[in-house]
Amino acid sequence: MLSRSAESIYWASRYIERAEDITRLLGVNFNAMLEAEIEEDKLGWLPLVKAFGNTDGYYAAYGDQVNARNVTEYLLWQPGNPNAVLSCLQRARENARSVREQISTEMWEHINRIYHHSREINQEAVLQSPYEFFRFVRDASQAFQGITDATMMHGEPFEFIQLGKYIERGSFTVETLEMEYANVRWLVDGSPESVVQLIVMLKSCSAFEPFRRTYASDLQAWRVMEYLLLNPQFPRSVTFCMRRCTETVSEVAGMSVDETSQAGVRVSTRRNNSNPFAGPTRLFGRIYSDLEYLDISEVLGDSFQSYLGQLLMRINGAGDDVMRTFFNTQIILPDAYPQTQQQQQ
After folding, report:
1. Start-end of H helices in the chain
2. What pLDDT digit, counting tens, does each position of 218-260 carry?
């Protein structure tokens, strides 16, 4: 598979996943602020801008007015925010359009429909009552994954879609843990405040119901952290995502080697190992192995946020190696955008 096509498919998947993650987090934060009976709390909304936007860009657009309406508008539509939901959907559509011959008609029609609905919707009405739009983006993203699974050949293009999805999903879970841990670290387990914050953390990763089915009402901070970081069966845990990344990139590397020998299709690489595509497999494999054998008590406490920051850097680094190994185009590395990787089109 040509590297340009692989890159477009990979990023279309990442952008759709990112749009879902941001709208879900906004919805959870709205509910949390209402339950706390706080309408305009800078401390409640600014962390979302820091994690999934750019504070300088936000202040340039809205001044020091950090509130629900402004943050929602910034994360959904602000043209100056490259991670705004509409920007993500636009880039997903552009990437999908460039590889129409690689994806199914149903996939293209679905992406096109998501983008046009999000662009043409009454933004003022959404800002007044955003929950329906949040639900639309969530359902549309999940429907895209189902349509992809049901209508696309499960070959190399499909694997790049899975790889993009799980890198984005794993990164989001780490960012959410890093953002929310400060809110629960000093709270007493079992206190009303602790319970509220832990529920917010679980719902931000669509983990509340699966967690309750596993642990009933045992809402303890260490158990929630362990679940979101290490549970091998929950599809948004970091361990699950890194295992799927390892499996997927191994599959892609095997296919690329076969194609190189049989069809002469070259994919760019900077490695000179016997298998030039093995680098990302090793990086994801190391992350997965470290998580698989990690005891959560070893990292909780003062060092947990530092551990999460280092883990996010490792995931981003493995993602960078995927791009250097399989793709030709230039990228903006994490030191230019510390929070999220960006595609340069």
Report:
1. 3-35, 42-52, 55-62, 68-76, 85-98, 105-120, 123-128, 131-151, 156-184, 192-204, 208-215, 221-230, 238-263, 279-292, 304-326
2. 788 899 999 999 999 999 999 999 999 999 998 887 755 444 3
